Amino acid sequence: MPSPAAVIVGVGGLYVAQSVIGGVTFQGLPAVLRQTGASLNDIAFILLTVLPWSFKFLWAPWIERIRLPASGGNRSRLVVGAIGAVGVASLVAAAFTGPTMLGAVTTALVIGAFASATVDIACDGYAVESLAERHRGWGNAAQVAGAYLGSAIGGGAFLILIDYVGWRDATLVMAGVLAALGLPFLLGRSPLQPHRAGADRPSLGAALKRPEVRRGIALVGLYVLGQKWAMVLISPFLVDAGLSLTTIGLFNGFMGTAFGVLAALLGGWATRRYGAAPVMMASLLAQVAATAGFALAAALAWKSVYGLGALTVLNSGVMAFGFVALYAELMGRASLDQAGVDFTLFQCGDGLVSLIGWQLVGMFGDRLGFVWCFGLAAAIGLGAAAALPRLARPLSRT
């Protein structure tokens, strides 16, 4: 059985790698497109890359059956290596396509998102089955902190590189980073956690029969409703406020990451001490305040670089703080016999609710403007906070 440290280092690298693609897609590319004059509706087109993350539950049982064969054993490294190579190739293709060919670059990034989402199925399942409950806080911190570090690389360092070396070379660097981050998992010496022979075949039906999973999906949807809908607005808003790509990259990337990693560690500590529900509630209320701050900045045409940067960094930290608590609760609701399927359903709830909100922003953002969009997102967050206590209560055990 692998040591907890080996598991956390291995899956942490994969979580960072997955978020590099997400950072390039959701933070880097929107800023580049906005700088070239693209509308919010055009930018929303790239959100098609969320679809694999939203519907990966459809192929999660198949991936789990390959990863955990009925005869026993564990093929996690085989799945991660094969599918991860597709993700690297997709970024290479995007590098030579260029951001002006929106349809082609979106197709490449959709393929990359498909590969990343599939790797995530195997990665989450491996983490849940390999980490004892007392170590899951560190696993959750690695997941959330890894996501922020990956976003910093893909949405921060990537933008800075574009300013200096251009789209093609910057994207090729991201492909190389992606490959390097997978090596600790693929080359680690610790043996894989064996899967018990004769276990039931992983399936969606088995997952949805469990009340823990059904309530977990509802909890994810509610939480994302309050936390994520304004996220896609931030980079275009900063561009319109006159910030350069390098400045946005610094705030979204290095500063946001440092604060996000710190907030993730703080969230892990707070979750262990106070429980998941209070931490999620505190994060939602702080998110409402940050989003309302963006609405006020838009209404006052406030263009202070430091002020807008502080709001951006605060937004990163608040999300990291709360999502550690959310994932800690969801890990406890996943079955060890098909952890990849159960956890995938939770993440697909996240993706679907995010996609709905981001598409609405894309459709109506130019018409309503930043003030109304940020303001409505803050109001939705308040509603989610009011409903959170019911779904976040521990399940009664009989």
From TrEMBL:
Cleaved signal peptide residues: none
Pfam families attached to this UniProt entry: MFS_1 (PF07690)
GO molecular function: transmembrane transporter activity
Major localisation: membrane
Entry GO terms, CC: membrane
Highest taxon, organism lineage: Bacteria
Name listed for the protein in its UniProt record: MFS transporter
Native species: Chenggangzhangella methanolivorans
